[in-house]
Amino acid sequence: MRLSPKTRWILALLCLVVASQMLALVPGLHNFAVVLWGLSLAFLIGALVLAVMRHREERSKPTE
Q1: Most CB atoms within 10 A, among 21, 49, 52, 64?
Q2: CB of 9 within 8 A of CB of 51?
Q3: What is the pTM of this model?
């Protein structure tokens, strides 16, 4: 199965979301938890935008 570049970016952003959420729970980084949650939210929004763009491209392709 071959993944499109947008799918790879979506997966990469979702991995960054998970990493940000895990780092927010680390006791030493407690002061930066809000920043990490904000980054996580930004990564989720980016992944959502890419997913919508990919869906619209797939929907607009002519079927043969």
Answers
A1: 21
A2: no
A3: 0.84
